[in-house]
Design brief:
With 478 residues, this protein is α/β, with parallel strands linked by helices. Helices cover 59% and strands 7% of the residues. The protein has two domains: 13-25 and 72-184, HAD superfamily/HAD-like (Rossmann fold, 3-Layer(aba) Sandwich), CATH 3.40.50; 191-477, Farnesyl Diphosphate Synthase, CATH 1.10.600.
């Protein structure tokens, strides 16, 4: 378990657990997530490896994964208490069921511990942890910082208890011991971080499911609108599951980027356990909302999920193919809306969406590279670099303008004359869209579009004005 310290029966001991105590995360889950992100097929080996016992399982995980200890989120309040205890002359101890090499590596980053010890031959948890403390510090008064039910064994023999975010049941068990106790609650805003992780602001992209109903002029036919609304929520929860999955896969890289290390998972404000449970919860809600819809909607949702998995593991690293997938995600929403509302998606709408959303995807990629250049950081897990900016910009602008050309050609067809009383008024939409698409590209080139273009548009007052003008034009044309 590491070197035995010199015994001093009079010197108080301030002992701290590592997982979910000093750290805002659990190293075992960190390694499992790391395995899922870099070698997903190895997840199939987990049941077999668990048969060899938890200690053997931990050792196997340590050989299959790597952790950047310097980026792991630390609970500053606990670290401050360690410093204070050391200043008072107490012997500070970092003790954990995590592997000894992990504990020693983390202790090197925070040199405020006199003793650092983890699991070597036996799992240093519960009664085993208590035995180590009693044998090493036989008569010393101990303050112990922990977070779980397994720590009750240690707290039984402690002089003082410090509990991190205990559950109501654990709090009751601790209070029943009638000892000097302190509670540290720093997850009171857990719901806030959970909602942030789901990114409901990104759901605005799913409004595209209503486009086929709108384009078919089924304004007062409530059936298609209700079906499209169900599809909206189904797509939204599916997308949220994908966001959580992507954040888990990108956890280590997000922690190294200043623009992303504040995210709920990267910062440790939302636990990995909660995030892992969120994925099946969101998938279930997605199925519930799409249950009575056309089977074709399920096929589109399944295609969207499969494409996102491929994108997360492989496609996002492939030049240009990643942008094709991003554009495809937008188009799939339109297909889903058409299938759900039983409105056929016209070739014109499909052609327009392919070019328009490819252009938006190019803006997204262009803006990411631009932001990285401005922050002097390197591109993470992408196939692009700074010399590709001009090519991306040229391709994106041309594709965006082509989508406006397709719209202009559509406005000349007989279909439009059948749907609108004054179709000539619709021509005013083309300069409005040309203004908007060129403006957003200029803003992107200045580094001002720092997120998904549709999300940026939601916050942009000029875009709202453009939308209002476009709506007025369509109303006048009807």
């Amino acid at each position: 378990m590491g070197a035995q310290p010199l015994r001093d029966e009079c010197q108080p001991v301030f002992a701290v657990d590592l997982d979910d105590s000093l750290l805002k995360t659990d190293l075992l889950l960190e390694r499992i997530v790391n395995l899922a992100a870099h070698a997903p097929l190895n997840l199939l080996k987990i049941p077999l490896k668990l048969l060899g016992g938890k200690l053997s399982f931990k050792r196997w995980l340590s050989t299959e994964t790597t952790l950047d200890y310097s980026t792991l989120p630390v609970r500053q309040e606990v670290l401050d208490r360690v410093k204070e205890a050391r200043g008072r002359g107490e012997k500070t101890v970092l003790i954990s069921a995590s592997l000894n090499e992990d504990v020693l590596n983390i202790a090197q980053l925070y040199p405020f511990f006199d003793v650092s010890v983890g699991t070597s031959d036996i799992n240093l948890k519960g009664s085993t942890k208590l035995k180590f403390l009693e044998e090493t510090f036989p008569s010393a008064p101990i303050t112990y910082v922990g977070d779980s039910l397994s720590d009750l064994d240690v707290w039984d023999k402690c002089q003082k208890i410090i509990a991190i975010n205990p559950s109501p049941y654990l709090s009751w068990r601790i209070r029943s011991k009638s000892k000097l106790t302190e509670f540290i609650f720093d997850k009171s805003s857990n719901l806030k971080f959970l909602v942030r992780e789901l990114r409901p602001y990104q759901w605005v992209k799913n409004v595209l499911v209503f486009l086929p109903v709108f384009a078919a002029h089924r304004f007062f036919d409530w059936g298609p609108w209700i079906a499209a609304a169900k599809t909206f929520f189904s797509f939204s929860f599916l997308a949220s599951a994908v966001y959580v999955f992507n954040d888990l896969c990108d956890l280590s890289s997000d922690r190294r980027q200043k623009s992303k290390n504040h995210r709920p998972l990267a910062s440790g404000n939302l636990s990995l356990k909660t995030a892992i449970l969120l994925i099946p919860a969101c998938l279930t809600l997605s199925v519930v909302f799409s249950w009575n819809l056309s089977p074709s909607v399920f096929h589109v949702l399944g295609c969207y999920l499969l494409m996102n998995i491929l994108y997360s593991f492989w496609v996002k690293k492939i030049l240009v193919m990643d942008v094709v997938f991003l554009a495809g995600f937008y188009s799939l929403r339109i297909f889903a809306g058409g299938f759900a509302s039983e409105v056929s998606v016209s070739e014109w709408l499909l052609s327009f969406s392919v070019f328009f959303f490819f252009g938006l995807a190019m803006i997204k990629r262009f803006s990411e590279i631009k932001a990285q250049l401005l922050s002097a950081s390197t591109t993470s897990r992408r196939a692009y670099d700074s010399q590709d900016l001009i090519t991306i910009q040229t391709s994106g602008i041309c594709t965006s303008v082509l989508s406006i050309l397709i719209l202009a050609l559509y406005l000349s067809t007989g279909e439009v004359k059948k749907l609108y009383s004054h179709p000539q008024i619709l021509w005013f939409v083309t300069p409005v869209l040309l203004f908007w698409i060129n403006r957003i590209w200029i803003l992107g080139s200045r580094g001002l579009v720092k997120e998904d273009p549709l999300v940026f548009a939601l916050k942009d007052k000029v875009t709202w004005a453009v939308g209002l003008i476009t709506a007025i034009i369509f109303l006048k044309a009807i």
